[in-house]
Amino acid sequence: MGAGHSRRSRSQNDSNDHHPEQEPAPPHINAVPPVNSNYPNQYAAQPQPYYNQAPQYYGGRRSYVPNNGHFYGGWGGAPPTHYMPFQPQQQMRQQVPEQTQRTSTIRNDVNLKKPTLKVRMSQEKPSALLVSFSFDAAAPCSVSVFFNVTEDSADSCKLTLVNSEPAPRVAFDKGLGQEFVQKLEHGLLLDTVSPADLLSTGPETFPLVVRLETVKKDATTEDGRERELLEPPGSPLPKWVQAQTTYATLTKNSDGEYMVRVLKQKIWVEGVSYELQEIYGIEQCTSGTAATGDDTGKECVICMSEPRDTTVLPCRHMCMCSGCARMLRHQTNRCPICRTAVDGLLEIKVERRT
Amino acid sequence: MAANSQLPRRIIKETQRLLSEPAPGISASPSEDNLRYFNVMILGPTQSPYEGGVYKLELFLPEEYPMAAPKVRFLTKIYHPNIDKLGRICLDILKDKWSPALQIRTVLLSIQALLSAPNPDDPLAEDIAKQWKEDEAKAVATAKEWTRQYAQG
């Protein structure tokens, strides 16, 4: 309690000199059950608390600062991905109620589609567990799979296997909807591990981790050579790598088969790690156009006129336009959808592709 | 229509949708001289003591709507533990549980549901609630009788 309080005081007094590595991960990340799981692949991200970076939120007491950030509209037909600027929770709770944060958008080149991550027994060798999933890559990328691995988030998300060598990376070209199926020799031999290790996680230990990595375009060394991924797989991530890491545990179903449960996903961009979070209701806002006439579901629930662009925190219900959101904060402290106490507002501008 | 032009877009939209896609067993139409005042009709839900009844209600959208709940009142006499003899309704979403994400349609659906599920533990009409708890069969019989007597449209 005492430590928590002193942290809070310091961040209040000295917010630009904030040291997020001492902050716990925002506990609300996993505290909110998905209200509606029909909104896949839309996320807000919160950077993990292990790097020094001044908070980049906008806005003031009553001011409403227009966002000058760059917004990225997504690649191919894939939905755009939105990220929230770093905002330690302790600060968020102290903010004046009517403050609205603005988002900046960063580009994520590799994305493992969470629902597709599966394990199955090898048909040739029933004691081997093989991982498969589908993913999108906007650039050539490499896939590496780790079983029973420990992450050192303070060391650029370095992944260390407990008692074995990592399997080599598998290279892919760029492309949407690619399939990864693990080779038998790299699968997990069940007779070499204890089932307890596969079914439980520690704070930084996970039964299954999948990392997609891509070297940033034009990343060269001082003497002009192209950058490469560091060996071995799981090495601390350098700045010139853009990565997405999926952390999962295994469960056993009633037939005794192993199933995957994804715990979280993080992306690594420009040397900063962000945790991906879904925003409920964003999909209707970004799909379709106003011209189709049927605008229920993407209009603000309050004025029923403006498009939704503001997400309520911490519950992440994207249900209002920014104007109504500000008005609401003068009237009530509850989310219109779930009545959870409002911590803050997050405005997300979506740039439509024409 | 002067009153119409000052009406918030939300109310206009809600009204249009209520008229074009009415909820089953519910009709609501705005009064000609006050577009914030609605004449409402709710059919008694099947398998409830109010089955076969036609209930008239009035619904008014206050100036603060949707930040404040609509004001709704039964005009037809009804024997229900959560509705008093003035037609006032004891329903949380009309009071402290109001949310601006709710609408006229959802409010009326909630009232329809309240007819299917009387809640004598949170009474507005104390005497009816008491009757309901002491002898539910008799209370239901009385509700049916009132439906036949007062709620035939």
UniProtKB/TrEMBL annotation, chain A:
SUPFAM superfamilies: RING/U-box. Transmembrane segments: none annotated. GO terms for molecular function: ubiquitin protein ligase activity; zinc ion binding. CDD domains: mRING-HC-C3HC5_MGRN1-like. Gene3D superfamilies: Zinc/RING finger domain, C3HC4 (zinc finger). Residues 300-339 form the RING-type domain. This is RING-type E3 ubiquitin transferase.
UniProtKB/TrEMBL annotation, chain B:
SMART domains: UBCc. Residues 6-152 form the UBC core domain. SUPFAM superfamilies: UBC-like. The active site is at residue 90. The keyword Cell cycle does not apply. One of its GO terms (molecular function) is transferase activity. Keywords: ATP-binding, Nucleotide-binding, Transferase, Ubl conjugation pathway. It holds the Pfam family UQ_con. It comes from the Eukaryota. InterPro entries: UBC, UBQ-conjugating_AS, UBQ-conjugating_enzyme/RWD. Belongs to the ubiquitin-conjugating enzyme family. This is Ubiquitin-conjugating enzyme E2 35.
